[in-house]
Amino acid sequence: MQIGIEIIEKGCKRTSYVESSLIDILYEMIKNTYLGYEEIVLPNPIWEFVDNQVLGDFLTYILAYPKNVKTPVVHIQGRMKKIEAQYKSEYAGSPFVCFSGGVDSTGALLHLLDIQKKPIALWCDYGQPYNMSEKSVVEKICHKLDVSLLEANIDLKDLIVLGKERFGHVFPARNLLIAAIAMAFAPSEIVLAGLCDELVVPDKSVRMYDEFTKIFRIPLYSPFIKMTKADVLCIWKQRWSNMLDANDTVSCYSENGNCQNCSSCAKREVAMVASGYNLQYPIVFTNQSKLIEEHWFSRIDEFIPERRTDILIALYPFRDKLTETLRLLVEKNYENYKDEINMRKNSFTQLKDITYG
């Protein structure tokens, strides 16, 4: 299948497309997952240098999320002819960033610029409900940073609607599909900005980074694999604020962006406040109090220490503004994890640079 690409460089736009056999089989895999197939049979898109069983096991693993949805088993049989990337001569050797306009992926762009690399930003419009607000932010950020932006268009809206009840905001194999589109341009490396508290998600996990690199022979990594969003913002304050304000980013599930009434906004504001980047009370802490009380604090003991302490550091200064139930939860857990919180605060003051995985 052909993927429409709008290329935006220095204010100029042009339209073309890319295609590859890997994109083709991932599209079939995603479609069949949404359609509820228990087994998916696909051809091997990458010739003889990877075993069919290895690739099938990897793709099955990538689909194993969310945990309440039955994972289809992927079987790889036979071979496909590989289709060369159309833009190989133009973009070969450039680092690509899978870009969404959020703190993490924007931080990845800033990091590469900071170390004198020239990244290409790849954003994918696959029919997500918030695509237009995300598109607007993505374009503004790339314009400010003078970064070439490639906007890939693949209409999966009907599938997303079909699977909304089962998958919610999760899009099966989304990051793998975006990385495959990037791979069609023959990049030197692909950056997918996963965080240490996201590694339970298969297509932002250590296994995803390691096995993608081995199977497809293009480095895929996150510079922030040992960091949380709050850590990234601490680095941002010290190194990148002169390049871009972190408030220019967006992480929101609404059509308008920055709704302050969704789980994505809640996570973003926790990081903004915990890192000290923003100090005002975010109204999302009121709007999403039920989510925070019932979902976050019901699992607070299971979270990795960095995520747990970031939440408590962000909420504690505003405890008088919270609902009574949430205030009590914050105060109780702040006392329980006081030593851990003090260590976390101290780590913020000492954070000077990226901690690579």
What descriptors fit this protein?
single chain; 357 residues; alpha/beta
In brief:
This protein is an alpha/beta fold. It has helices at 21-34, 52-62, 88-91, 103-114, 131-145, 157-162, 164-167, 174-183, 206-216, 229-239, 263-274, 284-287, 289-296, 305-315, 324-336, 338-350; strands at 3-9, 12-18, 39-44, 73-79, 95-98, 120-125, 148-153, 189-191, 220-221.
- Which residues form runs of ≥5 with pLDDT under 50? none
Element string (H = helix, E = strand): EEHEHEHEHEHEHHHEHEHHHHHHH
Query: How many strands?
Result: 9
Count of DSSP-assigned helices? 16
**Helicity, as a percent range:** 40-55%
Computed structural class: alpha/beta
Main β-sheet, in a few words? 7 strands, mixed
**Percent of residues in beta strands:** 5-15%
Strand adjacency order, main sheet: 2-1-7-6-5-8-9
Q: Using only CA atoms, what is the Rg?
A: 21 Å
Question: What is the general shape?
Answer: globular
How far is the N terminus from the C terminus? 35 Å
Mean pLDDT: 92
Write up what this structure looks like.
The chain has 16 helices and 9 strands. It is of the alpha/beta class and 357 residues long. The chain starts with a strand and ends in a 7-residue tail after the last helix. The mean pLDDT is 92.
Secondary structure blueprint with pairings:
Elements: E1 3-9, E2 12-18, H1 21-34, E3 39-44, H2 52-62, E4 73-79, H3 88-91, E5 95-98, H4 103-114, E6 120-125, H5 131-145, E7 148-153, H6 157-162, H7 164-167, H8 174-183, E8 189-191, H9 206-216, E9 220-221, H10 229-239, H11 263-274, H12 284-287, H13 289-296, H14 305-315, H15 324-336, H16 338-350
Parallel strand pairs: 3-4, 5-6, 5-8, 6-7, 8-9
Antiparallel strand pairs: 1-2, 1-7
Helix pairs in contact: 1-8, 4-10, 10-11, 11-14, 14-16
